[in-house]
């Protein structure tokens, strides 16, 4: 399941036609903390075209974590492009959320991964957007 999540993050990072260094670092951090090797992540970054699978089978906790990482990645390079917002809204929709959840979380999730938000509170806010 983590490879599926990394695939989505990689596609988001590549949605503006360039994977920024900060985006790649965050993807590596998430992947390696979940037992994926650096080489495997590098291979995935080189081939970002894998289709996104079914995200509806995830638990609510997994859906939220997925959503959290997608928003964090969108913001990590300090620039947010329309293509990234649209991609995040599409992922949110595939996860069973209304698209408005991206705006709600985006204002509360920091671009610096070392600054953590109150995830429990964010999760409660995100739950209101579940269909």
Which short descriptors sum up this protein?
131 residues
Q: Taking all residues together, what is the mean pLDDT?
A: 89
The number of E-state strands comes to 0
Radius of gyration: 13 Å
Main beta-sheet annotation: none
Q: Which architecture name does CATH use? A: Orthogonal Bundle
Protein name: Co-chaperone DjlA N-terminal domain-containing protein
InterPro entries: TerB-like
Organism: Fulvivirga imtechensis AK7
Please explain how this structure is put together:
With 131 residues, the protein is an all-alpha fold. It has helices spanning 2-14, 21-33, 38-46, 60-76, 82-94, 101-106, 119-127. Helix 1 (2-14) runs antiparallel to helix 2 and helix 2 (21-33) packs across helix 3. The protein is globular and about 40 Å long. InterPro entries: TerB-like.
Give the arrangement of secondary structure elements:
Elements: H1 2-14, H2 21-33, H3 38-46, H4 60-76, H5 82-94, H6 101-106, H7 119-127
Helix pairs in contact: 1-2, 1-4, 2-3, 4-5
Brief write-up:
With about 130 residues, the chain is an all-alpha fold.
């Amino acid at each position: 399941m983590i490879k599926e999540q990394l695939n989505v993050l990689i596609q988001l990072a590549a949605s503006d036609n360039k994977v920024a260094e900060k985006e790649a670092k965050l993807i590596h951090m998430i992947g390696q903390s979940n037992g994926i090797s650096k080489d495997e992540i590098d291979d995935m970054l080189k081939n970002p075209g894998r289709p996104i699978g079914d995200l509806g089978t995830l638990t609510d906790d997994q859906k939220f974590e997925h959503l959290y990482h997608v928003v964090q990645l969108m913001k990590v390079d300090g620039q947010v492009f329309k293509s990234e917002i649209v991609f995040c809204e599409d992922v949110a929709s595939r996860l069973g959320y209304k698209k408005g959840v991206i705006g709600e979380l985006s204002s509360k999730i920091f671009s610096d991964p070392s600054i953590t938000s109150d995830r429990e509170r964010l999760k409660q806010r995100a739950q209101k957007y579940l269909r």
